[in-house]
Amino acid sequence: MLDPQSIKKQMLPYIKGLPVIITAVALALFFSTRYLRYTTPLFESTAKLKLDDHDLGFGASNLYRDFDVFTQSNHIQTEVEVLRSAAVLDQALELVPFGISYFRKGQLHDQELYGDSPFLVKIDSSVSFLDKSQTLQIRVISNEKFEVRLAENQSMPDLEGRFDEWLVAPGLRFQLQRNEAFLATRKNYHLLDDYYFTVHSKASLLRHFSDQLDVVPVDKDIAVVQLSIREAVPQKAADFVNAVAETYVNDYVQVRSDAANRTTGFIDKQLAETAKKLENAEYALEHYRLQNKIINTRQETETGLRKLAQLKLQLVNLEMREAALDSLNQYLDQEDREIGQLAPQFDAFGDLLFTELMKKLKRLEDEKKDLSLRYTNDHEFITVVDDKITDILNYLREGIANSLRDIRFQRSEIEKTIAIASTEFDDLPTKEKELIVLEREFQLQQNLYRFLSEKRSEASIATAANLSFHRIIEPALASEKPVTPVGALIYGVSVFLSLLVSIGFIALRQALRQSPKSRESLERLSALSVLGIVRDLSKQANEAEEEFAQLAASLRFRGRVEQSAVVAVTSSVNGEGKTSIAQGLAEAYTREGKKVLLVDCNLRQSTEKALYPNLAQVLLETAQAELPISIKNGVHRLPAGLAEGSPLTLLTEDRLGSWLQQWRSEFDLILLDTPATVSVPDTIGLMRMADTTLYVLRAGKTPSSVAMQPDLLCEEYALENVHLVLNGVHRATSYNGRFVSSSYRVHRPFATWRGQLGHYLNTYLR
User: Fold this and answer.
1) Which residues contact 453 (CB under 8 A, 6 or more apart)?
2) How far apart are CA 349 and CA 670, in angstroms?
3) DSSP secondary structure of 100-167
4) DSSP result, 400-426
5) Which residues neighbour 70 within 8 Å (Cβ) at sequence distance 6 or greater?
6) pLDDT tens across 40-60, in order?
7) Eight-class DSSP state of 708
8) What is residue 64's predicted lDDT score, i.e. its pLDDT?
9) 28 near 513, Cβ under 8 Å?
10) Sign of the alpha-carbon dihedral angle for 254, 260, 263, 269
């Protein structure tokens, strides 16, 4: 189980990488803010429409049940398709001013001026014809003049004009008028600017809003649908959704009203004919009674008369259905038919399959009209639609023909039955028989007239009751907040991605930089003993004295430094801090009262050639035997100088060794600052002459492959007394290199949380 110190150690790279994480988050927030500022937001407007349920809705009550004579149960999905149909959308677009869109150009973002344009465009429809949308660039140069460019990146204007004057562009004759009502409310409005307006073709508007409009049922068992659309201008979205809902309701009323009117006309015609027949029958019966002085008829004939009356009524119903089907068949054969204007008659069209076929036929004809705006009549798209329409018409004609055959068969049977029933009166006296026939005719015409009168009343009520049982229960409102882009989501995703990338970068960097970072990792890589560690002192120079005192004490406690000992300090590559450690050790021993000589043995890169004396001069025997060695901070120093020739010929036991023997008698400790072992072979001889060698590696910098260099040198050249020193270890470690965080550090107790926070930041982030 991990203890808190181990957890802190695992988290240490990410704590040290906080500047990278904070920078990544700041950049993510900055770019998210830029994105949100310059991205066009979309606003959503939603309306809800309640459809009438024939079983449970308002129209199912006894009062209104027969207002719509031929109502069928609403299928929600069917009404959804009707709402999205081109016929409804086309009528809705007539209610909103979407034909021309106005925009004001900006440096990074164009603003649509829906209802707020400083000028209005008037199109001469008599001479203008656009098969596709056209955009014109406008630059207002004064309160009276403007320039027109047909292309967006065009430098010279194509047209120059004045307000209220007609101009002619390709396929378009237009006039710009100042919107005085708008300018009056904006006294300080800057009119002189760059604008553009787009004249939309009807086909492009239909395509755009058909794709954007979303119509979905709220629930499959609830007759409520939701209409929504997203636009850059919130008021524009609200206006269109409300227009679609209003158009659908009005279209429902109009279609039902037209159907009721046509039904009323048909019934009126039949009623007039029946009234004339009833009048004739009444007159004939009255005349016969007066002429033959007949008051009552025989009681036994009542049953037969009732039967004949019912049969006659059935025969009339069959004749009416036959006439209605013949009328429909003739209407379908017409070339200029309008399916949307077709009104069902009586129960001849009450079949649900017929209703669905008629709706499908109407949609196909609407689709054909839309396609005709873009393609010729022989195009394959229109041909496919024509084939579908022909198939449906053939199916309808076949169904009508089957219905007619069935009706004619029933009529024939009823006529035979009537003929048989009529023979029952042959045995009656002639006068009574003729009276019964006249009364039967009168009763038949009277019942028929009563039946037609009832249907006429129902149709009249449906015509007069100009009601729609569809209702807008929630009109669309202009949204105040955009639905996209969502600021909180953008910020959240950007911060999450920045954290993911920055933490991943730190983790990848840690994985790629395989370098010993602690005493434990160095001991796993090398078989040599680790003498000690030097913590990172890059930003805490005041603690350097304590660090090097601890390293000197470690050398002393382990018995690696004897009287007049020679200690070589080296590293594998440059930049690992061997020179700083050599200087720090020299000053630490000097503070203990020892006489220390620090010799710079890097004869290849020295920049102190002019200093006298230097090591190169001593080894070339050009310097005096008694050296006037310089002293800095109590440490005797001998600079390297620049050797003439190969340094290997100078750094030998014959030359340098004799001087080391002489210096042993004068100094308590001699420190040799040697070159890096990977760069030059000069250090091998120096390590042999030294009593102890401190091999410096830098935590987090020295690669793991290079960290094995001292082991290879010791094995290859039989070197002894080589000890490792890990430089630049994190501050949250003990003096022997064990990670203990800041909890075990010696420090004064903090009185405030600010002091405690500053201590932690100073420990982990440096």
Assistant:
1) 271
2) 118
3) EEEEE--SS--EE-SS--SEEEEE-TTT---SS-EEEEEEE-SSSEEEEESSTT-SS-SEEEETT-EE
4) HHHHHHHHHHHHHHHHHHHHHHHGGGT
5) 259, 344, 349, 350
6) 889 999 999 888 765 544 344
7) T
8) 41
9) no
10) negative
Q: Where are the domains of the chain?
A: 4-39+485-511, 261-472, 516-730, 740-766
Whether residue 268 contacts residue 463, with contact meaning beta carbons closer than 8 Å, is answered with no
Residues 308, 446: Cα–Cα separation, whole Å = 14
Tokens of residue 308, six digits? 């004949």
368 band by pLDDT with thresholds 50, 70 and 90: confident
What is the rounded average pLDDT of the residues 184-192? 87
pLDDT at 353 over 80: no
pLDDT in tens, 203-214: 888 999 989 999
Name residues whose C-beta falls within 8 Å of residue 203's C-beta, 6 or more positions apart in sequence: 132, 370, 373, 374
- Type of residue found at 478: A
Kindly list the distances between the CA atom of residue 699 and the CA atoms of 11, 157, 548, 721, 730, in Å, as whole numbers in the listed order: 17, 69, 17, 22, 8
Any idea what DSSP says for residue 220? Answer: T
Q: Is 141 exposed, middle or buried (0-12, 13-18, 19+ CB in 10 A)?
A: exposed
Tokens 């009262």 belong to: 593
How many CB atoms within 10 Å of residue 107? 6
Amino acid found at 180: E
Rounded Cα–Cα distance for residues 44 and 237 (Å): 7
- pLDDT surpassing 70 at residue 268: yes
- Give me 682's structure tokens: 């000069």
CB 56 within 8 A of CB 244: no
Q: How far is Cα 214 from Cα 311, in angstroms, rounded to an integer?
A: 54
Per DSSP, 484 falls in state B
Q: What is the mean pLDDT of residues 671-689?
A: 86
With pLDDT > 70 as the criterion, what percentage of the chain qualifies?
A: 80
Q: What is the mean pLDDT of the chain?
A: 79
Give the separation between CA 660 and CA 564, rounded to whole angstroms.
10
* Confidence band for 72, pLDDT divided at 50, 70 and 90: very low
Angle at which helices 18-38 and 487-512 cross, to 10°? 150
Q: Structure pTM? A: 0.56
Paired tokens of 379? 């195009």
**Is the preceding omega at residue 485 within 30 degrees of 0, hence cis?**
yes
Q: Residue 100's pLDDT is what? A: 92
Q: Quick one: DSSP state of residue 50?
A: E
Cα 123–chain centre separation: 38
Of the two residues 642 and 560, the one the predictor is more confident about is 642
Instruction: Specify the fold of 516-730.
Output: Rossmann fold (3.40.50)
Task: Report how far residue 31's alpha carbon sits from residue 401's, in angstroms, rounded to the nearest whole number.
Answer: 72
| pLDDT tens, residue by residue, 653-675 | 777 888 888 888 889 899 999 98
Give residue 434's pLDDT: 73
Q: Letter for the amino acid at 511?
A: A
